[in-house]
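OP here, attaching both records as promised.
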Amino acid sequence: MTKKQIFYFGLFASIVLLSSGFRPFKMEMYPWLYAFEKRGVYTVPLEVEVGQKFFDVPFTGKTFVGFTQSLAVRESQGKYNKVNSLGYLGKYQFGAETLETLGISDEEQFLHSKKLQEKAFLANLARNKWELRKEIANYSGETVRGITITESGILAAAHLGGVGSVKRFLRTNGNRRFRDGYGTSITEYLREFAGYDTSCIEPNKKAKAVHYTY
């Protein structure tokens, strides 16, 4: 082998050796860390793939925004266009009767309007807070069936089962309990949504979604 051949062989060997130093010999990465391109669609980790049940992003704490978003996730996974098997509509799962009370008669329009759904939710909270103003004043801070009663818990429970079911539960010291069509009890909502700040909602007996400021 000539000196020239030896030089080029040594140069090639050096390049191979140096290149190998910049990548691992064995890559042990989870497949969900990669982004795969399929007609412009990229996959991201699913919550089951990373072993989490809930992603707390963004953090909203016990604020009113936290209350609205947590309740929306519980009701519909936060989907504005969701219609469940019982016919309840939207992000907050409203029934036709409640929508009519709030001044909404066009369910199709409601389902396709994010702004109207948010206005309906706020108006309904205002109505429920007026209807339950005595219960909020008399029972907040009390413990019923091991549940600390709060204003936000009362409003969430009323959203699930109506004002009457909350009144009956509190006035019978928890002996009268309501469950919805899927078996969810108002006690779950009283506990799960306790302690949020809902002070920004003003009680309003005649609140309508179509006139509600949002």
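Record two, same layout:
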Amino acid sequence: MFRAVLASVFLALPVAALAQQAARPAASAPAAVEHPRVVMHTTQGDFTLELFPEKAPKSVANFLQYVRDGFYDGTVFHRVVDGYMVQGGLYSRDLTQRRTRAAIPSEADNGLSNLRGTVAVARGTDANSGTSQFFVNLVDNRRLDYVSNQSGMTWGFAVFGKVVAGMDTIDKIAKLPTRPQGPFVGDVPNPLVIIDSASVVGEDKPAPAGAATAGPPAKAAPATATPAKAPEPKKGEKKPTATSSKPA
């Protein structure tokens, strides 16, 4: 009789344990990282970028600060290479540089690839020299991805977002004729493509604080300088043109 009672107690234990587990609140799933979006209004149309703070937190925070400061308003896309990329974010419409904040560390090793429609930090030969400039990939430019930290050439370029609306605007910009202008020996779109305004979706844009917001413009770089930029096509590789190649 005692054995039968003891056996029934042991059999009841798993049932009780299951009941306790069922009574416990289910563990909440980790909150999804919010992807901020930025809309840019240009003289060739609008486009919207979705940013990836979980992959490139420093790059995204840096870009958003420039947007919120109104830095990009009135800047231009100064470099356009059809079949490759379009680049902007530093020069005013007179092609003089604006004063930027300090450079940020490269986040090119974040696992994101320079595929068509992605946006990446433009920089100089130093991997950690990116400031306000950015470029949008017109095709899959995997050769711009991170390989190693051995040199600026192998570091690649940090992707921090992608175009989610208005890629037709980017393609339209890519098809514009280009010419030498100001400090540049070529690739300046004609007519100039001006970013009229940039804002974070869902945020009220602060009232303009005057020209002092972005700081006084720095001297234009000499024609031989190569400030923060995406790399040229590989040596021996034919430079893409509007007639020789098309975005993938």
